[in-house]
Amino acid sequence: MSVRLTAISAESLDVAAHVAAVSDSGTGAVASFLGTVRDHSPDATGTVTGLEYSAHPDAPRVLAEIAERVAAVHPDVALAVSHRTGEVAVGGLAIVACAGSAHRAAAFDACRDLVEVVKAELPMWKKQNLADGSHTWVGSA
Question: Do the record's keywords include DNA-binding (predicted)?
């Protein structure tokens, strides 16, 4: 199928827009991944109060290239993926990925592959703000 949506955004991510982007009359399954900010991290001592995401200027291009590579491996799946920048509170969405296909197994596989490659390759950094006023940096989102 194709890549239908990729974005790096300072605005809240719209799950419904991602689902709609990968859905059409032949879609029998939509698999999604919602990456949310949690209040703890193995990289931090103490309670996480929020994250601040910073993207390299090439991040939009890299995200689109990642999605195209994953789409090439999963040709019967439509993909949509976006990642936040800026401050995201605990419980907020940091990444949304959706894969639409005629069949669930293909959608699940493609969605997982998309998220794993984004996490490994997107030039994105996060600053974890902690309840005691300190922070830690994590190299990739």
Answer: no
